[in-house]
Amino acid sequence: MGLAPYLDPRFHIISARAPFVLGPGAYAWFHIEFTPTGIVIDPREAEESRVTLLRFIDELVEGYGVDHSRVFLMGFSQGGIISLSLALTEPKRLAGVVAMSARILPEVLPRMAPPAEMAGLPILLIHGVSDPVLGVDYGRAARDRLSTLPVALTYREYPMGHQVTEESLGDVVGWLRDRLDDKS
After folding, report:
1. Taking the CB of residue 49, how many other CB atoms lie within 10 A of it?
2. How much is the pLDDT for 1?
3. Which residues, other chains included, contact 126 with Cβ-Cβ below 8 Å and sequence gap of 6+?
4. What residue ranges do the domains of the chain occupy?
5. How many Cβ atoms from other residues are within 10 Å of residue 128's Cβ?
6. Cα–chain-centroid distance for residue 126?
7. Architecture of domain 67-183
8. Which residue has the higher pLDDT, 10 or 134?
9. What is the pLDDT of residues 2-46, one digit of tens each?
């Protein structure tokens, strides 16, 4: 919610808290381990979170009387990962996705929607070239995978780590505003 004041006031912003408690005030969409051989996630938790977020979106759409073609997801790190998971599996339920410092989970690929359902789905990927948590190779791999699909992909890299900077946030704000203007 710290980014909400920077976003276009035409957006109705709702923040979904991840379901798994890591510690006081710390939540995750799935548990993760950084091992010498790479990142290991709990795929059961990731799938449970994907389904939970989808149900949450459906409840919001019904409760606020909006349609799925006006729902954008924006997430950082795991929030971006779970947002990309929904974009790949349920693209018809979204207007677009902003994924910051994220990656595509290989576990979600078998659940991918047919590419024709993704046609034109706007996706903005941003990643720091010095990201020590999810190296830029993860962002580039996501870019390369999404480039094979008929989505409307925008990919940007920034001289930053695992963070949101004024420059990257400015691009996110502008990209979202442009998508919102396209919907008007």
Report:
1. 22
2. 56
3. 98, 99, 100, 101, 139, 155, 156, 157, 158, 168, 171, 172
4. 67-183
5. 23
6. 10
7. 3-Layer(aba) Sandwich (3.40)
8. 134
9. 788 888 888 888 889 999 998 898 899 999 998 888 889 999 999
Measured over the CA atoms of residue 88, residue 94, residue 95 and residue 99, the dihedral's sign is negative
For the chain, helix, strand, coil in percent to 5 are 45, 20, 35
Span 130-145, average pLDDT: 97
Please report where in the chains the tokens 């795991």 appear, as a residue.
Answer: 78
Q: Supply the DSSP symbol for 91.
A: G
Token pair of 49, please? 């979170």
Overall size of the chain counted in residues? 184
Tokens (6 digits) for 99? 């994924």
Long-range contact set of residues 102-106: C-beta below 8 Å, sequence gap at least 24: 102/75, 102/76, 102/77, 102/78, 102/127, 102/134, 102/138, 102/139, 102/142, 103/134, 103/138, 103/139, 103/141, 103/142, 104/141, 104/142, 104/145, 104/146, 105/41, 105/43, 105/46, 105/81
> Among 2, 126, 14, which residue's Cα sits nearest to residue 73?
14
Indicate the pTM of the whole model: 0.93
Render pLDDT for 64-121 as a digit per residue (tens, 0 to 9): 888 788 899 999 999 999 999 999 999 999 999 999 999 999 999 999 999 999 999 9
